[in-house]
Amino acid sequence: MSKLSGFRGQSVNANKHKPFGLKLLTDSIQRDGYAAPMVATADGQIIIGSARHEVTSDVMDVDPIVIHSDGTKPVIFVRDDIPTADDPKAKRLSISDNIIARVDYDPDGAILAALADDDDLIKRMIAADDAS
Questions:
Q1: Is 45 helix (H, G, I), strand (E, B) or coil?
Q2: Taking the model in full, what pTM does it have?
């Protein structure tokens, strides 16, 4: 897959997203670029970074950098245009990544409940999220 359009959006996403969160994400990407990669299955369905895929697919069909991995090693995304963590863009991206994740999270209770029925770790994560 050589174009972003070659990847499909997530068919079942437990995060419904919020319009304001998607707007913040769009603004951040347009100003400072990408802060985190998307993750796709081998057949091209985005499973992490659905919002990044959605807002980018709406405005451009770029040639993504595709890295194949079996998930056993971390992937580090180095931004060559950001010289140090003291750079204003680095500071903005660090804050934006966390705030957008929080503001844009709109869990779909039915999907989460179905996933939790089969997975104790997901069940614990949901309980921790509910407690916070």
A1: strand
A2: 0.86
